[in-house]
Amino acid sequence: MERRILIIDDDRSMCDILDAELRRRGFEVTTTTVPENALLRLSEGDFDLVVTDVNMHGMSGVDLCQKIVQSREDLPVVVMTAYGSMETAVSAIRAGAYDFVTKPFEMDDIALTIERALKHRALREEVKRLRRAVSDSQKFDDILGTSAAMKKMYDLISRVAETETTVLVTGESGTGKELVAKAIHLRSTRKDGPFVAINCAAMPENLLESELFGHVKGAFTDARTARPGLFIKASKGTLFLDEIGEMPAGMQAKLLRALQERTVRPVGGDQEQAFDARIVAATNRDLETEVEEKRFREDLFYRINVVRVRVPPLRARGSDILLLAQHFLQRYSQRVVGIKSNAADKLLSYTWPGNVRELQNCIERGVALAQFDHVGLDDLPERVREFKSSRVTVESNDPAELLPMEEVERRYILRVLEAVGGNKTLAAQVLGFDRRTLYRKLERCRDVPPKRESHPAHP
Question: pLDDT tens across 184-200, in order?
């Protein structure tokens, strides 16, 4: 942090005292006894802080402060005022001064005020940097993120969007799978057509069938008129089947037939209707496991899993966490402009089981509770504030800190499973097991209670 200070006081002896004392504390100091010269100095040189007396010949410190703030909003001004001149000090604050000190003052007091003002400026500059990062970041449609994991996903989206291929978007709840589906649509030749979305887990089977395939007049009690289904409504566009892993078994068979034949039959009808919609499906379930356990049709799985786009969990996206946090700050508040460093550290270390949706909720809460212009540690939810990451210690030379191999394996298996969002197929690939071996080890993990260390947990 730079520490260049301009001091203005028409009392030369005060300038000399401040010059000597502040230089001794590591500040770079320039002084002037003429207020008008201060404005010239500011236009010629780059300063980080101004300290000015209030009562001076020619131009008052209040007027000078007002002129400085008008031309250099980023530059904090500290005013010095005589004891008992509280009204003057208030006028200076209203003119835009950061703070004031009352003469006579202890040198440690004014040094502390200067340090606070410089820190405030540094925080404001960091907020501006983050805001620029949010504004300048190359948004992939409505998706925000610059991490390596996201760039890899962007590349795959760009390539698959240009085709008519059916796409399966997988990822944990809250990662933004619908945003990915929309990005595929908007980058495709169908971008001028409709994007139609339905949550397959949100309605019973008979209603889901009517929503997808439509119905004819009189098909059921309330069917007073014929109604086209979403396959037809998505014509020339994209149909997004969210949470397809939750679809009832009976509907899975009907959906498979529709995808194979590229036609749908409305409920109560006897005529097939051709549709022209691209299909993008999404799930937070491990469909390979669902197929193996007979909860999801294997033939439907292969029909929708032509190209798979995996959305990375938030914990795998590094500094994207702070980028997204700043984005949500700007959405929810003009008053709260940043995040304190200790709170930012917690955001980066937390594992975010609810992903971007949980982060959004966390920042909205922080903004609501923040007493000042930055979200602090106490403004975060307790689960984030009190979170402690657990890692297996392997570097220690203290036998008391080392664990049995069985416990190391147990922790590592559970950590890999957490990292891949519970996807057992992917976890088995990472671990180098087949799925049956992984299932057997997971059963043993459930039977064996975790080892409790007698020593404090290491970060």
Answer: 999 999 999 999 999 99
